[in-house]
Fold this protein.
Amino acid sequence: MDSTGSTAILLSAAVMTKDSMGTLEACLDSLDFCDEIVVVDDFSTDGTWEYLQSRGGQVRAFQRKLDTFASHRRALAEATRGEWILIVDADERAMPGLGEEVRDVLRRGARHDAYHVPQKNVLPDHWERPVFFWTSQKRLLRKGRVRWADSQWVHVPAIHEGKAGRLTHGLHHRSYDSVSHLLRKQLVYAQSSARHFHARGRRASMLRACLHTAGAFLKFYVAKRLFRFGMGGLTVASALAFHAFAKYALLWELGSGAPATERARVPGEASA
């Protein structure tokens, strides 16, 4: 209990969502080990906002237009009341054991201000062979000890003092819905990365572009063993390598200047 007589909040789940009715319920249900769940909705039109209003209980929601992921995360963190924040996307859910591990780390006295949380990235169910690979991001954060720099980068990291710790249990992430979705996300993410590094004075290098593109493919296809999954694994590894190449190509172009015009649609592209 705090000085006002109310129960102190140690752990807040912080969830960002936009038109996420297909995954949101499972996401929120998996976070019942948190003291509160705060959701920021980017003005969804698929019933997400109405669903959030019906949840009640430990779920609090507000709407905010997404401008940059950095400012969106700051606004979401400010809305939470816990000493610690667990950041979860609406297409993720906590895997068995994560809740117990997080509560145990906090109960024993956390040694770090940020912790990497493993993510099991799972590819579409309709592919003939299940495909998955593991990554991690800093998602468990001590509120007041972390910040996000102004940036257009989708994956702008939390900034904090000292090293980040690592958890063993993690999040199940429904990464991509289709090959088209996979490729489109890589281009959007590459654009945000290029803008981030261009704003910080970084310039593209052909050598770095070649090395990082090849390195990304080897990292995912060999080190993360996507070769086990046949064409699906090759597709994912190639798309993630394309992300590395596209980032440098876009960064190079930003250093060259903006085009005078750019056609809104590619010939044969379906209308929205």
